[in-house]
Amino acid sequence: MTFFTPKNTALLVSGVILGGILSAGVSSYFSAAHSTADVPHDAEHASRKVLFWYDPMYPNTRFDKPGKSPFMDMDLVPKYADGDADAAAAPGIRIDPTQTQNLGVKTEPVRRGSLEYRQTYPANVSYNDYQIAIIQARSAGFIEKVYPLTVGDKVQKGAPLVELTIPEWVEAQSEYLLLRDTGGTGTQTEGILERLRLAGMPDEDIRRLKTSRKIQTRFTLKAPIDGVITAFDLRAGMNIAKDNIVAKIQGMDPVWISAAVPESIAWMITDASQLAISVPAWPDKSFAIRKWSLLPSVDATTRTLQLRLLVDNPDESLKPGMNAWLKLNSKSQPMLLIPSKALIDNGDEQRVITVNADGRFVPKRVQVFHESQGVTAIRSGIAEGEKVVSSGLFLIDSEANIAGALDRMRAADTSAQGHEQ
């Protein structure tokens, strides 16, 4: 057993007191060192009021104290109250250059040039309505014979279609021959022949009547043009009225090729050289465009115009109903151009972020003219040579929203419009 003597007790008490003094000294030393290290940070917070902390990658989420971002492996950034005052005094915002570099913020100059438009549109081949013939008897009668033809058959000009008996024509022929044999005047006989022409009797049969002086009771209606029969529904023995259609024939050379194009690009189509036709059925074949036109009406649902091309088809390789592709390759007049990725469009307005001479990022509202091939043409809002942010817009745009730069821009626009009025 160990017994505490007065001497041992004194030594133990002295050791405890000395340990406490050393611990207090070490603790005081490190506390002082820590306080010294935090002086700049505390001094900065003391001199500048912090509104909140945020992650630049997720600027709309705010925190009430510093620390690590829950989204990214980075420290939260303070938003100072006097930062807003500085922003109000100067246009735009300023962002730490290291931050913009790390996030890949890039700029490109506004340039003047031609907007190139290249696009392919689906199209279809159809008959050319400039070449259509409608055959009618123009007098009542009945059908004696129908030649072996039907819809879709090709016919040559002069090919027989049907043979008819027309009582009105037979009666007029008798009257003509009677006047001619009984000394009728030339005016009277020519009047009867003209009446036969108006009633629809073919010129060939009228000439035969004059030379043969014999009444004809059967008449042949023939194809007036080369083409394809698109309507033909008659049978031998049928009665036919004067307004019945015997046949419809449509030509095959040239044909129409039609495509729906956006109304917004109509101004860019100025010449047939901008247009090219390709057909899946004939991938290696080219086709000559004889004429083109934009039809005057716009489809109210799709906001498109019909572009119609008159295309040569001498070998009839283009068949009505075929699919085709219309390729448009056009250039505009010189205008202000920016990369399309530099444009911010929220539906209500379009804007870009520019960089001024002081290195500040300034949002500007712009009016867009058209976009093509990753390039956007601008009507107004910026000038040639200005630099616009083309990469890292999400950072700049979110910073601009936090700093209130966009609100001030909109307020300035509203004020300017009020002065103009």
TrEMBL record:
Residues 254-331 form the CusB-like beta-barrel domain. Residues 168-217 form the CusB-like three alpha-helical bundle domain. Residues 132-250 form the CusB-like barrel-sandwich hybrid domain. Residues 52-79 form the Heavy metal binding domain. It comes from the Bacteria. The keyword Cell membrane does not apply. The keyword Transport applies. Keywords: Transport. SUPFAM superfamilies: HlyD-like secretion proteins (SSF111369). Belongs to the membrane fusion protein (MFP) (TC 8.A.1) family. This is Efflux RND transporter periplasmic adaptor subunit. It comes from Leclercia barmai. The lineage of its organism: Bacteria, Pseudomonadati, Pseudomonadota, Gammaproteobacteria, Enterobacterales.
